[in-house]
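Backbone geometry tokens:
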Amino acid sequence: MTPLLHLQSVSKQFRGLTAVSEVGFDVNAGEICSVIGPNGAGKTTLFNMISGVLRPNAGTITFGGQDLARVKPSRFAAIGIGRTFQNLALFKHGTVVENILVGRHVHLRSSVLEAAWFFGRTRREEIAARQRVEEIIDFLEIEHIRDAVVGTLSYGQQKRVELGRALACEPKLLLLDEMVSGMNLEETEDIARFILDIRDELGITVLMIEHDMRIVMDISDRVQVLNFGRRIAGGTPAEIRNDPAVLDAYLGRSAGQAQAQPVEQQGAAADA
């Protein structure tokens, strides 16, 4: 199987600091893949390179067989890479509908003249965009807040709005950066259900950074583990759960001394 996303020996340095060092792995179409690791492991830097925010100093990243080094950052959404951010990046004074509509910009083809007079293709695109936004609102179960100003919503609701905006781009690959951070148990379970539905119902491949080991182990097809900028392990949740190198990274002990305690228990203890 040709992977949807392929990373080979990807590295990133900031002056004298190496944030990511020779990281390589594949993400296949139709799977949920998680990237985990302690704070400072290089996870967000890796995401920033995959989404075009940063350029690697070395190595290659290909998406659908296309070298992302040859793609302008402004075109990443257009070729099928969508993303949410660890820190919310919403228009707080806009409504839920208006924020999700922003994600449709990559599908607009109208000229300035058509847009000024709002006829022909512009009108058709506007109708199609609003219809798609309503479908996303229904999918994420936020019909009751569709007209609410985003700045008045709870943190968990704002997270859903940001997820909706990313879905509005109609990505082939969705990057989720700590979606459940700061959420309670009920909100976390809802997001886990949405992620599974995004893969199963919408056919979107998901790559996510997550600190909540319970959600990682429950819904991931494969897990990649970073520590100090390097990939130290990769495999199914069952393979990762008791990997000595992973236990060492999370517990700070030598691999030989690591007890066979599941990684998700260590993550839960660390969150507590």
User: Anything to note?
Assistant: The two ends are 40 Å apart (CA to CA). The longest helix spans residues 121-139.
